[in-house]
């Protein structure tokens, strides 16, 4: 009995020991599995950490990172000795030294900002017995995806860095070539300053400026005003800021600097990009112009204040409202450099207006060249305007300067501009537009800075319509039009004009008094020859002692009556009447008037001059 019991006890003890041994084996197996998994996870973490460390190496290229990554991958897999890897990026391929493809393969796409750029592949070179899950662990499948994602981010960073470096290099090259000073300021220090900036403020080597604070720059070469320039460069405000600041060096040199600050992002931080230029010459010129403008404005105010009481403007006589309007236009034309057209009947004073514009303008110290376009033969127009070289034609015995040469920096008064031929208008238009011209017989061009003041007693718009004037020529000279009223439309100025001419032609003596009936007759007379006719009537009276108004039924004579006129005077009266009517009918177009009268244009010009119609 006792033996049986002992046996049973021993059996129980043996069973218990057997069960204990089996449990230990299970624990040991579990420990081995956990240890293996932990080892694999450590390998995976080491792999990802090693790839991240590659990115932190200073100066490492993208290609070196990708090659380093394929070399890091095999030790992270469960069979390192049989593992090889390959990275494909665009047209580049990076692989391990022992690389060879096999049927056992893991692959993952490399995406950069969502765009496909390449792939990561891992191979087992030796085939393994197939199992339920294949030779690759589930964790390795996740790992290759994690590596591919990390490579995508690394590629994006390196490409961005490359692009930034290329842009920075291009910008540096460009900044060194421009004439303006260029600086890049970040956190109070100069990251970049080009040569133009160094020269502007008197610094030597631009390399010595890099990394310096503003206070350090001022301690080496002090420039008053430089601190004000960069005090306005506040990177906390992204909107651009322009500035114009006076500067003074220690040596006392004064200059003006103009520039612009703009905030940019540089290497992930805000920085201030500044451009600066020396505008001293421009500022001094602006100050000079402003002083002149202030003076002119004061003169203009004084002149306008007394304009209504003025009976005389330059050499022009008249207080009537039409003449006050003419004075206003003269002032506006004088303050401009645009071309002017003066319209008016013969004898209204177009040349006086042109001279007044010239004398009140900035060109007053230069030549005022008068050209009677109707008095120059067509075959000599080009020579007269542009000049000619010796031997250019038969009578060209020496070089001759033209009107454009003489009028350089001055004014060119073209009287009777409607008489210019179309071909001459074309040639003159180029010179008026600031182009060049060549003297007759020369192959070398010249330039002249002149202002055109044109005058005509004909309707230019009608001439353009009828083809006697080019449209482009008309618009080029007719920038500021001034229309002069005929004397019959400003009769209140007649007493002023009479008084003026009597004093002018009676120097050193008291001018005679004009009888009331004579003055009344002057008021009612139409004055076809305008102020010039009135002037000649006064001169004739002072010379011959008689008043006569040609072509007028109200003519009054003190010395003789109508029956006593000589035949020659009567003929002149008839000629003058016929010519005046023809000119009125053709709106003072001499060519058309000459055709109506049956004489040449030159003959008409001579008769108009003789009869004092021009």
Describe this structure in words.
- With 614 residues, the protein is of the alpha+beta class.
- Helices cover 46% and strands 17% of the residues.
- Strand 8 and strand 9 form a beta hairpin.
- The longest helix is centred in the first third of the chain and has 55 residues, at 2-56.
- It is elongated.
- The model is unreliable at 550-565 (pLDDT under 50).
Summarize, please.
Helix content is 46%, strand content 17%.
Give the overall shape, derived from the CA principal axes: elongated
Relative helix content: 40-55%
Mean pLDDT score: 81
Strand order of the largest sheet: 6-5-10-9-8-7
Largest sheet: 6 strands, antiparallel
CATH topology of the largest domain, by name, is Rossmann fold
Structural class: alpha+beta
Query: What percent of residues are in strands?
Result: 15-25%
| Annotated CATH architecture of the largest domain | 3-Layer(aba) Sandwich
What is the CATH C level class of the largest domain, in words?
Answer: Alpha Beta
Total number of strands: 17
The value of Rg in angstroms is 50 Å
CATH superfamily of the largest domain: P-loop containing nucleotide triphosphate hydrolases
Distance between the termini: 171 Å
In the residues, how many domains can be counted?
A: 4
Count the DSSP helices.
20
Give the low-pLDDT segments.
550-565
């Amino acid at each position: 009995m006792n033996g049986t019991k002992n046996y049973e006890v021993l059996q129980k003890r043996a069973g218990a020991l057997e069960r204990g041994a089996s449990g230990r084996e299970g624990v040991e197996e579990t420990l081995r599995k956990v240890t293996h998994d932990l080892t694999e996870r450590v390998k995976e973490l080491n792999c990802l950490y090693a790839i991240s460390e590659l990115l932190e190496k200073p100066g490492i290229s993208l290609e070196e990172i990708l090659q380093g990554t394929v070399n890091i991958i095999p030790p992270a897999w469960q069979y390192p000795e049989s593992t090889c890897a390959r990275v494909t990026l665009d047209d580049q391929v990076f692989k391990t030294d022992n690389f060879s493809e096999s049927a056992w393969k893991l692959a993952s796409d490399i995406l950069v900002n969502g765009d496909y750029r390449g792939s990561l592949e891992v191979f087992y070179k030796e085939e393994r017995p197939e199992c339920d899950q294949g030779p690759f662990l589930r964790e390795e499948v996740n790992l290759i995806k994690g590596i591919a994602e990390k490579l995508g981010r690394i590629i994006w960073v390196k490409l961005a860095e490359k692009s930034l470096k290329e842009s920075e290099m291009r910008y540096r090259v460009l900044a060194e070539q421009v004439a303006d000073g260029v600086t890049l300021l970040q956190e109070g220090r100069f990251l970049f300053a080009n040569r133009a900036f160094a020269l502007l403020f008197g610094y030597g080597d631009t390399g010595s400026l890099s990394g310096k604070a503003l206070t350090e720059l001022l301690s080496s070469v002090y420039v008053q005003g430089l601190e004000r320039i960069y005090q306005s460069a506040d990177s906390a405000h992204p909107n651009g800021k322009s500035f114009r600041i006076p500067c003074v060096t220690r040596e006392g040199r004064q200059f003006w600097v103009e520039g612009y600050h703009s905030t940019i992002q540089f290497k992930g931080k805000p920085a201030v990009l500044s451009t600066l230029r020396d505008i001293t010459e421009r500022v001094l010129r602006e100050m000079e112009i402003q002083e002149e403008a202030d003076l002119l404005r004061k003169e203009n105010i004084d002149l306008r204040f007394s304009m209504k009481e003025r009976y005389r403007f330059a050499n022009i006589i008249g207080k009537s409202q039409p003449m006050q309007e003419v004075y206003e236009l003269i002032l506006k034309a004088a303050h401009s450099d645009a071309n002017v057209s003066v319209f008016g009947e013969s004898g209204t004073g177009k040349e006086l207006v042109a001279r007044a514009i010239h004398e009140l303008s900035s060109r007053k110290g230069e030549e005022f060249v008068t050209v009677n376009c109707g008095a120059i033969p067509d075959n000599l127009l080009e020579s007269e305007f542009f000049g000619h070289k010796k031997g250019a034609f038969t009578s060209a015995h020496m070089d001759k300067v033209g009107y454009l040469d003489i009028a350089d920096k001055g004014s060119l008064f073209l009287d009777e501009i409607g008489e210019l031929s179309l071909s001459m208008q074309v040639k003159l238009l180029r010179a008026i537009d600031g182009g060049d011209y060549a003297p007759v017989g020369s192959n070398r061009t010249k330039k002249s800075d002149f202002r055109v003041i044109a005058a005509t007693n004909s309707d230019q718009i009608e001439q353009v319509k009828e083809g006697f004037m080019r449209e482009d020529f008309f618009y080029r000279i007719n920038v500021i039009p001034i229309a002069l009223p005929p004397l019959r439309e400003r009769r209140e100025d007649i007493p002023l004009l009479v008084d003026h001419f009597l004093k002018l032609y009676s120097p050193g003596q008291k001018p005679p008094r004009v009888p009331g009936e004579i003055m009344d007759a002057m008021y009612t007379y139409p004055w076809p020859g305008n102020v010039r006719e009135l002037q000649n009537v006064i001169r004739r009276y002072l010379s011959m002692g008689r008043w006569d108004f040609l072509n007028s039924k109200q003519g009054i004579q003190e010395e003789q009556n109508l029956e006593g006129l000589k035949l020659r005077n009567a003929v002149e009266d008839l000629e003058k009447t016929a010519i005046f009517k023809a000119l009125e009918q053709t709106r003072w177009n001499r060519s058309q008037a000459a055709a109506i009268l049956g004489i040449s244009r030159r003959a008409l010009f001579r008769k108009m001059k003789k009869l004092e119609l021009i």
